[in-house]
């Protein structure tokens, strides 16, 4: 994967952009010509990096950030020195960094009573039907002795996954979801995505069951899908796995067949990444194999 694409899709460009904007605000405190030029370049690159990251902060926070930026820019164009406004820029963008940082930490999964898991996914999980390639749910079952109920399907959307869940008996104490990519790449609107995901999580949510979901990597200007996913995750107590985890697999050498679907090596890397997160939830067992 191209390093720039990874930097953007993983959400890391948001932190880069915030840092550049803060640097621009700091440079605005100095009247020297070279600092003014550096300020303009730093600000421009910072705004671009934030926008293309599609970081799903709440809309009100972007409204505050945008308002402060507009006032600050007006002052800069009039060549007035307002140190207080520059400090305000620094504070609000530091606050934005603080709001987003927790979303990039790995979730803590609570211990469960039995070694079983249900997986709901699309072709990233189901694979492309090559019998020689074991999918990451199969690898978890083989190596760690986990009883895996694999409901992943090629072409699955949030809506089709909900229908499948309704028709299936799920008893696992932990359900892991890798779903929504086909909705974003397809014709599902943000409003329909919200309705479908809400319906799916409502069916899955049950006392004593943990829901874990892979956060969706977002193309530029697709903030709303990510915002919906985070809001509904909070509503139903879903633990979100930061999108950088999935993208770190895609970025690995030889991990994909077509930049999205996992190769044999990619399936193994995905299994390792998922187990790092959910493994501590399961009681230890000697029933493992290589």
From TrEMBL:
Keywords: Hydrolase, Membrane, Transmembrane, Transmembrane helix. GO terms for molecular function: carboxylesterase activity. The chain crosses the membrane at residues 6-27, 34-53, 59-77, 84-101. It comes from Gimesia panareensis. Residues 119-268 form the SGNH hydrolase-type esterase domain. The lineage of its organism: Bacteria, Pseudomonadati, Planctomycetota, Planctomycetia, Planctomycetales. Gene3D superfamilies: SGNH hydrolase (3.40.50.1110). Signal peptide: none annotated. Pfam families: Lipase_GDSL_2 (PF13472). Its EC number is 3.1.1.1. InterPro entries: SGNH_hydro (IPR013830), SGNH_hydro_sf (IPR036514). The keyword Thylakoid does not apply. This is Esterase TesA. It is an enzyme of class 3 (hydrolase). It comes from the Bacteria.
């Amino acid at each position: 994967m191209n390093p720039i694409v990874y930097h953007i899709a993983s959400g890391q460009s948001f932190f880069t952009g915030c840092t550049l904007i803060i640097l621009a605000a700091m440079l605005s405190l100095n009247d020297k010509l070279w600092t003014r030029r550096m300020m303009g370049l730093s600000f421009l690159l910072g705004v671009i990096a934030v926008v293309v990251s599609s970081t799903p902060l709440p809309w009100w926070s972007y409204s505050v950030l945008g308002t402060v930026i507009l006032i600050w820019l007006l002052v800069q164009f009039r060549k007035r020195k307002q140190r207080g406004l520059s400090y305000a820029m620094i504070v609000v963008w530091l606050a934005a960094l603080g709001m987003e940082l927790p979303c990039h930490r790995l979730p803590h999964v609570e211990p469960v009573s039995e070694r079983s898991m249900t997986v709901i996914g699309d072709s990233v999980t189901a694979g492309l039907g090559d019998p020689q390639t074991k999918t990451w749910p199969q690898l978890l079952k083989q190596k760690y002795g986990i009883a895996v109920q694999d409901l992943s399907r090629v072409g699955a959307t949030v809506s089709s996954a909900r229908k499948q869940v309704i028709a299936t008996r799920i008893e696992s104490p932990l359900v892991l979801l890798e779903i929504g990519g086909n909705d974003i790449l397809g014709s599902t609107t943000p409003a329909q995505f919200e309705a479908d995901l809400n319906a799916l999580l409502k069916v899955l949510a049950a006392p004593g069951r943990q829901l874990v979901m892979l956060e969706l990597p977002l193309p530029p200007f697709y903030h709303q899908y990510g915002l919906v996913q985070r809001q509904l995750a909070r509503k139903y107590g879903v633990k979100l796995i930061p999108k950088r985890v999935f993208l770190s697999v895609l970025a690995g050498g030889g991990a994909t067949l077509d930049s999205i679907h996992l190769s044999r090596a990619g399936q193994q890397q995905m299994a390792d990444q998922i187990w790092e997160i959910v493994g501590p939830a399961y009681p230890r067992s000697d029933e493992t194999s290589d």
